[in-house]
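Lab meeting, item 3. Inverse folding demo.
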């Protein structure tokens, strides 16, 4: 493998590390790995990375199981031992490095500590902080925010609220809120508090 290719592997890792969630990093890295041509001389890279991609997507979407984590570790270990190129070995090494953070297990339990995986979070408006300016409602392209903008000298307004089934979690509402009244909430923690 040339120095140019090694640098490229490190560049992909740096790009992946821009994501906070190690599961998201792993998926990003694997997708980049699969988008490049492979030599096809060994099965661990070609089959292993594709299988890893499917299992990582399941974990990110909230459908992952302990079997997925076991399979990812097995695939990465096999790639380290059997891949013929440095690129395959590095891919496995990075995946195992990110798996050792414990975050993968937290996803299986229903939490993304970095609040980056959309299946595990909700956007909520904090009523005490909301000034009812309506900026969030204006930028929401999906009509996920209901409520009424406050007008001087009038009362009895419907407070702003995010309809979870319509919310795509794009983050535009957070960007425009002048009082930081919109927060990202861990669904599991919210259910534990309300249950």
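The presenter then showed the designed sequence:
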């Amino acid at each position: 493998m040339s120095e140019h290719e090694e640098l490229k592997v490190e560049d992909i890792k740096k790009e992946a590390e821009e994501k906070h969630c190690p599961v998201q990093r792993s998926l990003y890295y694997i997708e980049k790995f699969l988008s490049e041509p492979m030599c096809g001389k060994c099965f661990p890279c070609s089959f292993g990375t594709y299988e890893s991609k499917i299992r990582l997507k399941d974990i990110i979407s909230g459908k992952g199981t302990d079997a997925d984590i076991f399979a990812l570790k097995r695939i990465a270990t096999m790639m380290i031992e059997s891949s013929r190129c440095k690129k395959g070995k590095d891919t496995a090494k990075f995946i195992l490095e990110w798996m050792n953070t414990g975050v993968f297990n937290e996803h299986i339990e229903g939490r993304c500590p970095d609040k980056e995986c959309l299946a595990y979070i909700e956007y909520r408006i904090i009523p005490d902080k909301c000034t009812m300016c309506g900026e969030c409602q204006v930028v929401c392209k999906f009509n996920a925010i209901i409520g009424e903008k406050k007008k001087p000298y009038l009362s009895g307004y419907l407070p702003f609220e995010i309809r979870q089934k319509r919310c795509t979690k794009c983050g535009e509402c957070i960007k425009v809120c002048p009082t930081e009244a919109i927060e990202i909430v861990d669904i599991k923690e919210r259910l534990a508090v309300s249950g």
